[in-house]
Structure formats: C-alpha cells, structure tokens
Design goal:
Elements: E1 13-17, H1 28-37, E2 44-47, H2 54-67, E3 73-76, H3 81-84, H4 87-94, E4 98-101, H5 106-113, H6 117-127, E5 131-135, H7 137-140, E6 145-150, E7 161-165, E8 173-177, H8 185-194, E9 199-203, E10 207-212, E11 216-221, E12 224-229, E13 234-235, E14 248-249, E15 252-257, E16 261-262, H9 272-281
Parallel strand pairs: 1-5, 2-3, 2-4, 4-5, 8-9
Antiparallel strand pairs: 1-10, 6-7, 9-12, 10-11, 11-16, 12-15, 13-14
Helix pairs in contact: 4-6
Amino acid sequence: MSGPAQAGTRRASLLIIGGGEDREHDMQILERFVALCGGPDKRIVVLTAASRVPAKMWTIYDAAFGGMNVGSRKPVHVASRLEANDAAMAAEVAMADGIFLTGGDQKRLLAQAGGTRLDEALHAALARGACIAGTSAGASAMSAHMLADGKADLHPEKGAVSLGAGLGFLPRVVIDQHFSQRHRLARLLTVVAQNPYLLGVGIDEDTALLIEAGGSIEILGAGAVTVVDGRHMVSNVADIRNRAVPEMVDVRLHLLPSGSRYGAAGDSATPAAFSDFLNIVTNIA
C-alpha cells in the first residue's frame, strides 16, 4: 500500500467525515487533513456557515489545529448571503491550501453559500489542488445531491426523505453521516429506492472517506463506510403509496472498513462490481 500524503504534495482531495472525529487525542483524521493541505505551514480556513454557534465551533477547531502547529489558520464566519458574496473573503478562501467545513445544518450552509462567490471560491480552491474537508453537515453538503431532511427508522419508506442541491463536488452521490451510530441504513435505502441513479454513501462517526484526484479512495478512522448501489435494482417504488415500504430486489451493498484503499498503484485490486463506483466518486470537480 502507498502511504498517506506527505507535506508538500498538492493533489486535489475531499476528506468526507461522518462527524464526531477525534479533536483532542490522536486526531488521526484531522492530522491527515493537515498533511493533505501540504503540512502545518500551509493556509487553512475553517468555514462555520453550517453552525448556529460559529464562534464556539471555531474555538474547537482553533484548539485542534493549533495543537498540530498549524500557524496560518483562520475562521470564515458567514451569517448571510451578502457576506458570502464578499469579494475579499472569497479570494482568501480560493487561495487556501485547506478548507474545513464544520458541522451544523447542511440546509443552512447551502442557503447562505450556494451560488455565491464563496461557493465559486470553494470550487476554485479544489481546482488548484486544495483539500476540502467536511464533517457531519459539512460532509452531506459536498455532493451535488444533498440529503436535506427526513428519517426512516426500521425500513425504507417512500417519501420519508427529501433531497436538496449540495455544493456539487461529487456527482451522482448522496452522503449520510453518523451512519451506524444513528442507524441510518433505512434512511439511505429510502433515498436509493427513489433515486436509483444515485449511489448512497453512509459514513460512521470518527471515520472519513478520502477521495484523491487521480482515482483513489481510502477509509480512515475508527469505523466504516457503507455504499448502497441501486442501479441494478428492481423496485415497485413508483407504484406504491406514500410512506409504504418499497420492494427492492438486487440492491448491492459494499462495506469498507478503516484501512480499505482502492485505485492507487500497489493497492488492493478493485473488484469489477466496485470499479464503476470508484470511477464515479473520484470524478471530483
């Protein structure tokens, strides 16, 4: 297996965290984020737009990144779309080496930032090789189709979950977080039942899916990533009433525990049934 990115490497990457990452002890995921940014001497901004308590959120990550000797770290607090269209702020984000999207409410993040100069700056930073990380709500916001609201407790239920427009770094993917801890498989199956074109990705707490330009993925942290693929599915979801349980035949499920790595030279051979998923998720933009 090839090792983690070293300080100084600059490959565009997404670090998608299921929430609850360790911020005080070994901080494996956050340390990997700093390495992907190019090391502690690089510029990191923390975007708190998803949170209703941005100052408190910044205090947490200021301490964590400070403990890793990141000297150039700065919060970006956005409380309105007017602020998200500030040219100077957007320029600073566009030139950052790493951008960290905090938790909170993904709908709040998109309502304030979607389609603004800040949104454009995030894409510009990724295009020039930055690492963008997001945890919890920040993770869900990364895909083009964002899981916005709703729940399904025991079984998938037609109409129980709604989607919204996300930041668009990943096409054809919908991301759920706190996955195993909050028993969200039924919720993700609900999304896939109604949108078989989309791949469902569920990420456990203190766990991250790392997607790197060049076509590789890696799972790190304490848990696992669950992938639900309904593209070969046969279902009656179009014909049943709202809140009924759909029939879902031939749904594929992949479980990737921490340490799984595919796509890079010298890593595990990619199974044929998984190669299409790899091609889709590594098409970051």
